[in-house]
Amino acid sequence: MTINRRKFLGATAAASAALSAPMALAAGNGKPRVVVIGGGAGGATAARYIAKDSKGEIDVTLIEPTRTYYTCFFSNLYLGGFKEMDELGHSYGGLAAAGVNVIHDWAIGVDRDSKQVTLAGGATLTYDKLVLSPGIDFVDNAVAGWDVTAQNAMPHAYKGGSQTELLKAQLAAMPEGGVFAMVAPPNPYRCPPGPYERVSMVAHYLKANNPTAKIIVADPKPKFSKMALFQEGWANNYGGMIDWVGEEFGGGNVEVDPNGMTLSIDGEVVNVDVCNVIPAMKAGKIAEIAGVTQGNWAPVNAADMSSKADADVYVLGDASQQGDMPKSGFSANSQAKVCANAIRGALTGSRVFPAKFSNTCWSLIDTDNGVKVGATYEATDEKIAKVDGFISSTGESSEVRKATYLESEGWYSGITADMFG
Q1: The pLDDT of residue 26
Q2: N or C: more exposed end of the chain, with fewer CB within 10 A?
């Protein structure tokens, strides 16, 4: 399975062309109204597709506090020196030009009875359908000694932008022979291979700039996504630099001291120079405020991503509890298209197609050394269920690995164009 920008956008255009022309079923005296909260891979895609495919028959408003969206996916390549931060930043001008009303503000309240969203700036928006795509927040006290007030001393860098820049600056400032530590998250979390691609990219940077430095990974899990591929890559490219401490050896019994810059693993205290703490995750706060979460995540119906708590609220991407799909940018984008088709059908009477989903997660281990894992999915009554999958093999040739890396670059161009226009 190969993907490049042309194929990604071409498949998207073909799916859009298949949709039948809408007929307006306006709410009240005007157009039906859709409010989308969160302008990432799920929210931006949903807003763009609802506006584009309804041909102006639906009023679409996107609420997103940041004016430039920095993708969390591919941010590890910035740490490794393969990307500049500007390459990860995207504006909302294309969405506005496509007819989406983009409001840069925080959504702070949802009243599902009156179907209203309250913004920090004081405005109140009424909706017929509400799409929540808020990404992640962190579980309180998930890592002993750490909370968000410590994120400057020990960055999580698991939301794109300033945290990623901070971690890169700390990496560059490490003393010769210093220690970079990571506290990896428990399942489920955003981008299953993400922490381990990050380890690879940090190792790539240190090998070139600080070759006597060490990396320690404290992991509460006994295994992780693409484990054999990463461990093969670490052994071949960064021999002796990376020490992964899994569940069996106390990787889940961790405490940090941001003031003293220490990491304790199963009672053994280590002085560290940089500590990347990636805590346990939960749905973004607005999903909890809206009352659609159950535990840490928001359960949804697989056929259309509608909330199990409210048929007029939809939850996309990382925040949703949907079944077998990983929490990734590709997944959010795929779910958003299914959701957009369902919402357009509900509000305009246009045809709704059966839900189909796909995902691929690429990771870079070293220069031109890319690996991938992915699958296709279908909606069942119980969940989004995996149909079939694929994964890179250990021992692949350098030509295959380079082709995989180039494929990931094509996908990034394609998905960001698909999100933002």
Answers
A1: 38
A2: N
